[in-house]
Amino acid sequence: MSEIYRSTTTAPVNIAVIKYWGKRDPKLNLPTNSSLSVTLSQADLRTLTTASCSPTYPTGDTLLINGQSQDVSGARTQACFHALRELRKDIEYEKPEVPRLSHFPLHIVSENNFPTAAGLASSAAGFAALVRAIADLYELPTDPTELSRIARQGSGSACRSLFGGYVGWERGTRMDGKDSMAFQVAPASHWPDMRALILVVSAAKKGVSSTTGMQTTVATSTLFPMRPKEVVPRRMKEMAKAITDKDFETFAKVTMMDSNSFHASCLDTYPPIFYLNDVSRAAIKAVEVINAAAGKIIAAYTFDAGPNAVIYYLAEHEAAIAGLFKAILGDKDGWENERGAAIQANAAAVKTLEEEAGVVIPVIKEGVSRVILTGVGEGPVKSEEHLVDEQGQVVSR
Amino acid sequence: MSEIYRSTTTAPVNIAVIKYWGKRDPKLNLPTNSSLSVTLSQADLRTLTTASCSPTYPTGDTLLINGQSQDVSGARTQACFHALRELRKDIEYEKPEVPRLSHFPLHIVSENNFPTAAGLASSAAGFAALVRAIADLYELPTDPTELSRIARQGSGSACRSLFGGYVGWERGTRMDGKDSMAFQVAPASHWPDMRALILVVSAAKKGVSSTTGMQTTVATSTLFPMRPKEVVPRRMKEMAKAITDKDFETFAKVTMMDSNSFHASCLDTYPPIFYLNDVSRAAIKAVEVINAAAGKIIAAYTFDAGPNAVIYYLAEHEAAIAGLFKAILGDKDGWENERGAAIQANAAAVKTLEEEAGVVIPVIKEGVSRVILTGVGEGPVKSEEHLVDEQGQVVSR
Fold first, then answer.
1. Partner B, chain A 56-115, Cβ-Cβ below 8 Å
2. What is the pLDDT of residue A120?
3. 3-class secondary structure, A198
4. Residue ranges of the Diphosphomevalonate decarboxylase-like N-terminal domain (chains A, B) (predicted)?
5. Considering only CA atoms, which of B90, B2, B9 is closest in space to residue B50?
6. Of B256, B273, B269, B239, nearest to B309 (Cα)?
7. Is A368 in contact with A199 (CB distance < 8 Å)?
8. Nearest to B288 among A269, A271, A278 (CB)
9. Which helix (H) or strand (E) holds A199?
């Protein structure tokens, strides 16, 4: 019998409504401000990761993502491996009878169920799954909060993907980062009607990496200091209350304002960083027209470090929002699933948009390459769909 | 003999390097922060205005701009007329022998030498010329500083067009606005080599008006308060010193950062205001590549409330900057004059741009409709080219 140990988990993508931008400690990935996100459904977007280890593996940890071998020598991956092995060693020290897994090479195999070309930040789901899978493999008694401190060191926003629903990340004040961790504001079941429509924009070229970009902002923007000092602390409270109260209008307004504030900080960086393009601006205008037509805020845009628009709305307004975009983008990928098929193209909404800001319709039509229909979802889930077989071989799929 | 009194003046356009955005008093046009601009040469961009008055004119003041009759009942035009008439009345009170011009209807006729379609803010030159022409007509003993307080009430940035060269506008702190006026930082002759290349971008639609936009920023942006509080006061000092020292690199860096800061404030407004588009961003990238290739900052972009790029540079770098854009935009209007004809299309610079950021070349080519080659210039100049003849008739041209 081969001594192969393995554990598999899924982890979700999250999209922040209060943005993480700026590190107070780049080595420990400690942020300049707290942030808050919605965890998205893993039916639509998830990473599946198997962590395995064995005394029979050749020396050296390995990581395979979507069939591509990755460099594991980077400080971030190493920080995660190291922290998890230390926790395992504590168990091995307490219970000499358990196998000494911490000494075996780790083989990690990971797959995303969404196209890499979508330009969605996969590092959050990736590091959350990696940390959760190794923690399960090592049978660590840690809760998500504890693991979030470790995942944070791999990729800041990964700490938020260890929880489902509505998730905060407390910046903390300690130098060692012990108090900088994620927490659940509310589970998905508290406000399950939250939907997200992602407009994937075909960008000509990848922009500035977020790690480089955020530190240039911290170093050069003269407007940015207002975010950690005043703007974000106030918005964290407003947003947590909006979620508790299921107050969509406040949720939406704070989401849009914070996205704008983040991109304004990028523009105030020297040299300036642009993630929004004319397609992004057209999506913003479409959301403004939708809200004006409804007479209240029923849709909220937000943009991460790229031109893709994420539009949050409640299920009851699917016709007004997803219906409008289906009418414009019905020939693009992303409407094939059951939910997508059920959405009626909303010709009346297109007519209103045409009247109010007709110029944006061809811009959206030409600039969006696919859509992703999703919504709030659960945190990591243990899986038996292992990507490493009982002989330690990568499962070919 | 007909009793027609007239006086004619020209006034220049100015383009700010430290931006005016936000009013602390919308009625008096008092700004939230000081600003600083370069007055552009009137050979390329100017307003020509004749102010005339006569007891024989029918009742009511009139204003004709580029052959179009304008409404003069607006508070801003009225504020200018009223302030100038009051100063004239003081003279008439002191010297009963002078004609009582303050009681006669005013007929103002104004023409720009640049296409309205260029989307250049003509209100600064327009109100500066209007105020200067009426002041000359009334033989007011006022200097440009005094007149700048009046022109400011017509259009904020008009106060800076009463001076040539490098011009500041002090925000002032008084409620009545008496200390909010323009002043000359340095005459054009101090640093005459300053050139400006304007890339006129064919925008699909006029954006948010600046008056509405800036007050929405003041009311909603949470980052903007840093500008009046810290950012602009520091930059005003840095910029004045850079001009005194003829330190182009500092001049350029502060110019670019302040343009970015202004547009970041617009983006942080709710709802967000966008003036920059993908063509503007391509122009920014081109300037970044020019500077990187030169190994120092030889060009500075700045953008007002629209997508047009204004690029400042020194005459010695004409080949590197204007030459690059001539190679890309040589078939567009604006190169016909003597200076434009003398510029060689710089193929080597295009090659560098192609290598570093080739994607921007077609964006600039397709998005820029014309160029304007100009540079630092003088303030208003009295003219005998009257737009009203000796019989009080508008001169047809």
1. none
2. 73
3. strand
4. 11-182
5. B9
6. B256
7. yes
8. A271
9. strand A194-201
Question: Is A383 inside a domain boundary?
Answer: no
Q: For chains A and B, what is the number of CB pairs under 8 angstroms?
A: 81
Residue A322's nearest CA partner among A331, A333, A335 is: A335
Assign residue B182 the CATH number of its domain: 3.30.230.10
What pLDDT score was predicted for residue A225?
A: 97
Domain-located, residue B34? yes
Model confidence pLDDT, tens digit, residues A289-332? 999 999 999 999 999 999 999 999 999 999 999 999 999 999 99
Q: Taking CB atoms and an 8 Å limit, are A204 and B359 in contact across chains?
A: yes
**Chain A within 8 Å of B267 (Cβ-Cβ)?**
yes
A261–chain B nearest CA distance, Å: 5
The reply to whether residue B223 touches residue A230, judged by beta carbons under 8 angstroms, is no
Cβ contact (<8 Å) for B264 and A260? no
Separation CA A280–CA B317 (nearest Å): 36
- Taking phi over 0 as left and psi of -120 to 50 as alpha, with beta for the rest, B58 belongs to beta
CB-CB under 8 Å, B257 with A267 = no
Q: Are residues B219 and B142 in the same domain?
A: no
Both tokens of A154, joined, read 């791999």
pLDDT for A210 equals: 82
Q: Is B262 an 8 Å CB contact of chain A?
A: no
- For residue A278, list chain B residues with Cβ-Cβ distance below 8 A: 277-278
Q: Determine, for residues A225 and B224 on separate chains, whether the beta-carbon distance falls below 8 Å.
A: no
Phi first, then psi, for residue A108 (nearest 5°) are: -115, 130
Residue where one domain finishes, among candidates A146, A166, A188: A188
Q: How many Cα atoms occupy the beta-carbon half-sphere of B185 within 13 Å?
A: 27
CB contact under 8 A, A223 and B269: no
* A265 with B269: Cβ contact below 8 A: no
Whether B29 has its CB under 8 Å from any CB of chain A: the answer is no
- Do B119 and B215 lie in one domain? The reply is no
Same domain, A206 and A184: no
Residue B392 covered by a domain? no
Contact B260 A278 (CB under 8 A): no
CA distance A120 to B82: 60
Q: Is the Cβ of B203 closer than 8 Å to some Cβ of chain A?
A: no
Closest partner CB to A222 (pick from B230, B256, B269): B230
* Total domain count, chain A: 2
Of A221, A260, A269, the CB nearest to B267: A260
Contacts with B308 (C-beta within 8 Å, 6 or more apart), sequence order:
B118, B119, B120, B198, B199, B200, B201, B280
Stretches in chain A below the pLDDT threshold 70:
1-2, 116-119, 121, 203-207, 397
Measure in Å the smallest separation between the Cα of A289 and chain B Cα atoms: 11
Look up the CATH number of the domain holding residue B200.
3.30.70.890
Whether A102 and A246 map to the same domain: the answer is: no
Residue A382 lies in a domain: no
pLDDT at B396: 76
Q: Are residues A32 and A162 in the same domain?
A: yes
The answer to whether B277 contacts chain A (CB < 8 Å) is yes
**Which residues of chain B, if any, have pLDDT below 70?**
1-2, 116-119, 121, 203-207, 397
Same-domain pairing of B179 and B246: no
* Parent domain of A134: 5-188
The residue from A138, A161, A188 where one domain ends is: A188
CA separation (Å) from A263 to A17, A121, A164, A281, B99? 13, 17, 26, 12, 60
Q: Are residues A182 and A210 in the same domain?
A: no
Portion 278-297 of B in contact with A at CB < 8 A = 278, 281, 284, 288
User: Residue B146 and residue A251: Cα distance in Å, rounded?
Assistant: 50
Strands of the sheet with B68-70, listed across from one edge: B68-70, B62-65, B106-112, B46-53, B5-12, B381-383
For residues B138 and B198, membership in a common domain is answered with no
**Plot region of B384 (φ>0 → left; ψ -120 to 50 → alpha; else → beta):** alpha
